[in-house]
Write a structure and sequence with these properties.
This protein is α/β, with parallel strands linked by helices. Helices cover 33% and strands 22% of the residues. The protein has helices spanning 48-65, 108-115, 124-127, 136-146, 150-155, 164-172, 185-188, 203-209, 246-253, 312-320, 330-335, 375-401, 418-428, 440-452, 459-465, 478-493, and strands at 4-10, 14-20, 26-33, 45-46, 73-80, 85-89, 99-100, 159-163, 182-184, 218-220, 223-228, 239-245, 262-266, 270-277, 288-293, 301-308, 345-347, 365-367, 408-411, 432-435, 468-472. Strands 15-16-14-13-19-20-21 form a seven-stranded mixed beta sheet. Strands 3-2-1-5-12-11 form a six-stranded mixed beta sheet, with helices on both faces. It has a two-stranded antiparallel ribbon with strand order 4-7. The chain is globular. The termini are far apart.
């Protein structure tokens, strides 16, 4: 009998299940989008119940397409949108509020109050993160402060929290009937509550935030058997054995196990991760310090991360909000109707600016408009915004490392766009390399789970499975590159200081 690993990828816009074979190749997949809920400007929510229903459906789709049953699956791996906070009643299984998504900016006032005593880097030495709306901690506090009765129920021990990894695992393993309430070190490192050295929740920080410790999941490694799928589900009795936050999972799937190994993922946002080995490196250039992965009882591996809030979601905005395109792939065709951006630069600071600026007061801007500009130029500027933002976080990573990266491994949905990848190589000035399997997020979660049950023997098997599909060499003249970067940076400054107290 052939054996496989299934990965559940609970992402920002959809939930997917992908079945992988021993060679790390995709056997089958299922995918379903969930609703993006925008109650107010800057607010982004998801319905946790919808996510769980969709997760079960995509598991069924992936299994049926390959004519597989639970008996063919040796392990389940989980990867997820990080920082997206779910608070639910452990007795009923009902969320007390929608999931507050990582992009959500409603907690800026909480950030400002916490930063008033010690600044934005108040907890950074301990947790590796600046105070920002991005992370889970302020979202939990907002729910406790604003949902009627939530704080009382939390203090009574009835409410529990998790990023969407915890929500999916709790439901998979039984929910109210013995569901396992856990998270892994990579997700825990995105809450603002975990001490990077001890890998434990920090009581002092929890007290400052006013979050009861009883709400928090138990912190586990990224690769171990946490429990088995429960009850009458399609995967019942299959071990759940791997959890990695999406960007760490992509790093794992790209086999970036050596110190200095790096990848850049192009999804809803963009995320550059650089492996720093067993050393905790604190950035001086606006990057985050995070846990890269921890395999069982082995020592944790750390990373620096450049987090960009809006890249792929800018293309969705062109499609859904402006109606400029009907499908996301059309943006490449539209961009190719013009030779350049026509002087237009789009800075998509829809939720403020993340790395390397960390400006919660920024908002999106489109600059350089003239009567010459058409929708082709806007499409091209939207694609180029992804590349420019990536260049800025790469510059920060190079500055922290003290040595320049020689090439860039890329993955995620947008890397299928050849025009974008060529411009990315041009604006970076180094080769851009795409692997054969670009679904490295799900693949990394599959590897973590498979390693835990012995399906793969070691990370050497992961490295052996990685192979190059295509590379793009830089073709842009250095003078033109410098000119474009100068104009981009000028555009970025136009987004600063937009949000005042009376701006909603």
């Amino acid at each position: 009998m052939s054996e496989y690993v299934i990965a559940i990828d609970q992402g920002t816009t959809s939930s997917r299940a992908i079945v992988f074979d021993h060679d790390g190749k995709i056997v089958s997949s299922g995918q379903k989008e969930h609703e993006q809920i925008f109650p107010h400007a800057g607010w982004v929510e998801h319905d946790p119940a919808e996510i769980w229903v969709n997760t079960r459906e995509v598991i069924g789709n992936a299994l049926s397409k390959a004519n597989l049953t639970r008996h063919d699956i040796v392990a389940v791996g989980i990867t997820n949108q990080r920082e997206t906070a779910v608070v639910w009643d452990k007795n009923t299984g009902e969320p007390v509020y929608n999931a507050i998504v990582w992009q959500d900016a409603r907690t800026q006032s909480i950030v400002d109050k916490l930063a008033a005593d010690g600044g934005a880097d108040r907890f950074k030495d301990k947790v590796g993160l600046p105070l920002a709306t991005y992370f889970s901690g302020t979202k939990i506090k907002w729910i406790l402060d604003n949902v009627e009765g939530a704080r009382e129920r939390a203090e009574a021990g009835d409410l529990i929290f998790g990023n969407t990894d915890s929500w999916v695992v709790w439901n998979l393993t039984g929910g109210t009937d013995g569901g396992v309430h856990i998270t892994d070190v990579t997700n825990a490192s995105r809450t603002m509550f975990m001490d990077l050295k001890t890998l434990q929740w920090d009581d002092d920080i929890l007290k400052v935030f006013g979050v009861p410790k009883s709400m928090l999941p138990e912190i586990k490694s990224s690769s171990e058997v946490y429990g088995k799928v429960h009850g009458n589900q399609l995967l019942r009795e299959v071990p759940v054995a791997g959890i990695l936050g999406d960007q760490q999972a992509a790093t794992f799937g790209q086999a970036a196990f050596e110190k200095g190994g790096a990848k850049n993922t192009y999804g809803t946002g963009n995320f550059l991760i650089v492996n720093t080995g067993e050393e905790i490196v604190h950035s001086k250039n606006g990057l985050l310090t995070t846990v890269c992965y921890k395999l069982g009882d082995a020592k944790p591996v750390y990373a620096l991360e450049g987090s960009i809030a809006v890249t792929g979601s800018l293309i969705q905005w062109l499609r859904d909000n402006l109606g400029l395109i009907k499908t996301a792939p059309e943006v490449e065709q539209l961009a190719e109707t013009v030779e350049d951006n026509g002087g237009v630069y789009i800075v998509p600071a829809f939720s403020g600016l993340f790395a390397p600026y960390w400006r919660g007061d920024a908002r999106g801007a489109m600059v350089g408009l003239t009567r010459f500009v058409n929708k082709g130029h806007i499409a091209r500027a939207a694609l180029e915004a992804t590349a420019f933002q990536t260049r800025e976080v790469l510059d920060a990573a190079n500055a922290d490392a003290g040595v320049d990266m020689e090439d860039m491994r890329v993955d995620g949905g947008m890397v299928a766009n050849d025009a974008l990848m060529q411009f990315q190589a041009d604006i970076l000035g180094i080769p851009v390399i795409r692997p054969q399997v670009i679904e490295t997020t799900a693949l990394g979660a599959a590897y973590a789970a498979g390693l835990a049950v012995g399906f793969w023997d070691s990370t050497d098997d992961v490295t052996a499975n990685w192979s190059e599909d295509k590379r793009w060499e830089p073709q842009m003249d250095a003078g033109e590159r410098d000119r474009q970067l100068r104009l981009w940076k000028k555009a970025v400054t136009r987004t600063f200081d937009w949000v005042d107290e009376d701006v909603k």
